[in-house]
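hey team, just a heads up i'm posting the complex here instead of the shared drive bc the drive is being weird again. everything in one block, sequence lines first with there labels, then the predicted structure for the whole assembly after. its two chains so it's a bit long, scroll down
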Amino acid sequence: MLKGIVTVSLKQDVLDPQGQAVLHSLQSLGFNEAKNVRIGKSIEVWLEENDSNKAESRLGEMCESLLVNSVIEDYSFEIVEE
Amino acid sequence: MMRCAVIVFPGSNCDSDLYKAANSVEGMEAEYLWYTSESLEGYDAVLLPGGFSYGDALRAGALASQAPVLKALRRAADSGVYILGICNGFQILTECGLLPGALHRNSGLRFICDTVNLEVVNTDICFTSGYSRGAKQIRLPIAHGEGNYTCDTDTLRKLEDNAQIVFRYSGNNPNGSLAGIAGISNSKGNVLGMMPHPERAMAEWMGSSDGRILFESLMMRT
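-- predicted structure starts here --
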């Protein structure tokens, strides 16, 4: 069994109002070194597959067809042993 | 008689508003169609209602854009059937690629429920021809948390050059939408997606009857 961990982030040129709200809260708590916050998500997919190359190509297809909206999001992933 | 299908997804919640609005227009006949349907044969128009299909899991409209009826919807769009997506329906149309761009979180982070002023930018498509006779400033309700339209600069230029921006927020931009976009069409003009709710503005007692003109325009198909 392998597990794919997909990290989805908003593209750099897409405004992240959620990140901005969190940034302001951090600064009001005194964390003045915080200069920017971007919020993404992590998606874990357990795969009934032992070949990590195959797992990689299938996970890429999953990202392109559903998990990620390439208009506003970027992604990266890693495959780990479960 | 113009036959319309109101597609019902799990989590749609404006389906009965849309059904009643369409059926209140003379010459228009709407029926509900479940999201598992594989055919849209015999319908002149397909209406995608607002709501929270699949609970907005992953992204608003993302899972509905993979539902069985979407294959038939793509074929219908190609063959010139009129397709109207309102609110979550608009999100589904961008997620499935029938309309460009994406709708993400309102810039103010809040869910907004309000009635807003809109400019009808393009009155030349079948959905909006009726607005050419009156004021192009109209009032329609909005109710959404993810109506902030965005796309890349090339896409925006194409939308502007091809007159695909159909509605813009007038005055105040409630959700941070790029260029104040509230509704866009495809290049052929037979697919329209919009965040405001025309089906909730069908009579003066609802606060506005400006939405009725959209359904009547569609009925006339001019």
